[in-house]
Specification:
Elements (H helix, E strand, L loop, with lengths): L5 E7 L3 H11 L6 E4 L8 H4 L4 H4 L9 E2 L12 E2 L21 H9 L7 H11 E3 L13 E3 L7 H12 L15 E4 L4 E2 L2 E2 L2 H9 L5 E4 L2 E9 L2 E9 L2 E13 L2 H11 L2 E2 L1 H6 L6 E2 L5 E3 L3 E9 L5 H6 L1 H14 L11 E5 L10 E6 L15 E8 L6 E4 L10 E3 L6 H18 L2 H4 L2 E6 L7 H11 L1 E2 L29 E3 L14 H21 L10
Parallel strand pairs: 1-2, 1-13, 2-10, 5-6, 13-25, 14-15
Antiparallel strand pairs: 3-4, 7-18, 8-9, 11-12, 12-13, 16-21, 17-20, 17-23, 17-24, 18-19, 19-20, 21-22
Length: 545
């Protein structure tokens, strides 16, 4: 250890959580921070042009390009799992939808024993992070690092869709992040003046000016360094060079729901049987590391559109691309300045549900596979997403090689209730799309197809064509039960000076997109880390197996 490679805190991962931590922990000037990122700088111009997210699905320079292992019973095919490999992490490549989840999600976290994580506890951190274009109110903040805006433009199909939803009896809602989530309306986006507002832009850019922050890009963390059961640093590789960084205070894992448990397992923290099978001597048998993976699976209803007014035409025709480019260049407007969905809603598929169990996004394009290739015909997609899946899976290393991707097995659709809820959501949206106010724009249902009507036929569609919303969580779960990985201050049980701060700590999956909740988690964690630095509390005890 020497002054050059020793820091107060070492943060592993410069994604949605890591960039927040880097900003907040350096703000006082008292702490020296190293931020490690396996990817590179966020200089690719398509990161900052909102529609560029479609290109990032297949770009190995910005994306880990993970995919799931084929399931054994239901979804027996690999499903793509894009994760950001760049400053800003997945906030630099995602669809830019700003959704916090339901109040009940966080009250449930508290009911599970996680003191300090109720909705009333986390709301101040959502507000602290936010710079809402509409201004401040009871539920929202202004002046925070993350800009949240409303769409600048409307679209006739979106307008018709919202009217059809109202005709079907669903309430209107102009703020899914306010008093209630249920209803239909336009989405809010993490876009500012027509440009993506990632955490790299909102949080990291101003922090980079501080002399107490060091950033190492293309720095792949390979293992944690220990003294007994106390973490003292991180080994990482830049190019062909192996390096070590030491932490006087803590090492903080912010690699996300796949990379954080992977690094822990590679370092000897995880199920001992798994680790020993790869010749890794366990430092501590923590069976919950990599367990309890949950993700949002969805059904992509796609329609052929009778008019040439969708994104497919822009993607497939040079002159339309030029026109769209000029419109964007002149004011950041149009499709190039848009997030993945302009409008949508949250519904309850059964009156027994106290809150919505399905999220709907209307996308003004259609494609057989997520990415830059659109159908050759005008098309739209009504994505129907299961908000609270009961199916859960795991993340496991497949080798002691830190450059080998882990096995990702979400077990999509394993629980019958998940299949039933998604089928109910598909039927509900089909009913909306039959309303004359929207059906006049449609030519036919492309997928699953109007002939697919029975439960078995729709399950086959979900099995063969269903997708994910790319929201993995819970693989280093917070809790008080024996298989929980971190306590309510996000400290790893039984291990000194190690925290996990990212979506992997979530006790259950939020009801909606997970980027905003991840930022909230990091905002709250930063306060806890700074508080603990002053009080030096005892480390959490070892959990009973």
């Amino acid at each position: 250890m020497n002054n050059e490679n020793t820091f107060d805190y070492v943060i592993v991962g410069a994604g949605s959580a890591g960039c927040v931590l880097a900003n907040r922990l350096t703000a006082s000037g008292e702490h020296k921070i190293l931020l490690l990122e396996a990817g590179g700088e966020d200089r690719n111009p398509w990161i900052h042009i909102p529609i560029g997210y479609a290109k990032h699905f297949v770009n190995p320079k910005l994306n880990w390009l993970y995919e799931t292992a084929p399931g054994t019973e239901w979804v027996k095919r690999p499903v793509m799992q894009p994760r950001g490999k760049v400053l800003g992490g997945s906030s630099s490549i995602n669809g830019m939808i700003y959704i916090r989840g339901q109040h009940e999600d966080y009250d449930h976290w508290r009911q599970l024993g996680n003191v300090g994580w109720s909705y009333a506890d986390v709301l101040p951190y959502f507000r602290k992070a936010e710079d809402r274009s509409r201004g401040e109110d009871e539920f929202h903040g202004a002046g925070g690092p993350l800009h949240v805006s409303d769409p600048r433009d409307t679209h006739p199909i979106c307008d018709a869709f919202l009217k059809a939803a109202k005709n079907a009896g669903y309430p209107e809602n102009n703020d899914f992040n306010g008093a209630r989530q249920e209803g239909f309306g336009t989405y809010q986006w993490t876009i500012r003046n027509g440009r993506r507002h990632s955490v790299a832009v909102g949080y990291l850019r101003p922090a980079r000016k501080r002399p107490n922050l060091a950033i190492a890009t293309r720095a792949h963390a390979t293992r944690l360094l220990f003294e007994g059961r106390k973490v003292i640093g991180v080994e990482y590789q830049q190019g062909d060079t192996k390096k070590k960084a030491f932490a006087r205070g803590e090492v903080i894992l912010s690699g996300g729901a796949y990379n954080s448990p992977q690094l822990m397992q590679l370092s000897g923290l995880g199920p001992s049987e798994l680790l020993r099978s790869f010749g890794i001597e366990p430092v501590l048998d923590i069976k919950g590391v990599g367990a309890d993976l949950r993700d949002h699976y969805n059904a992509p209803l796609m329609y052929r559109v009778a008019q040439r007014i969708t994104g497919n035409e822009i993607a497939n025709h040079y002159h339309r691309r030029v026109t769209a480019g000029i419109r964007y260049a002149l004011g950041g407007r149009g499709l190039l300045g848009s997030a993945v969905a302009l409008c949508g809603g949250f519904i309850r598929t059964d009156s027994i549900h106290a809150s919505p169990d399905i999220q709907v996004l209307l996308m003004l394009f259609s494609t057989d596979k997520a990415g830059p290739t659109a159908h050759p015909f005008p098309g739209i997609t009504v994505t129907t997403t299961l908000l609270r899946p009961e199916s859960k899976g795991y993340v496991r290393i497949v080798s002691p090689d830190p450059f080998k991707a882990p096995e990702i097995q979400p077990n999509y659709l394993a629980e019958p209730k998940d299949r039933q809820s998604l089928i109910a959501g598909v039927r509900a949206m089909r009913n909306v799309m039959k309303d004359p106010v929207i059906s006049r724009y449609l030519q036919s249902e492309y997928a699953p197809g109007e002939d697919k009507v029975t439960d078995d036929e729709l399950v086959d569609f979900l099995r063969e064509k269903g997708r994910t919303s790319f929201h993995p969580v819970s693989t280093c779960r917070m809790g008080v039960d024996p298989t929980a990985v971190v306590d309510n201050r996000l400290r790893v049980y039984g291990i000194g000076n190690l925290r996990v701060v990212d979506a992997s700590i979530m006790p259950s999956i939020p009801s909606g997109n997970t980027n905003a909740p991840t930022i909230m988690v990091a905002e709250k964690a930063a306060d806890m880390i700074l508080e603990d630095a002053k009080s030096q509390p005892a480390q959490p005890e070892v959990r009973a197996a």
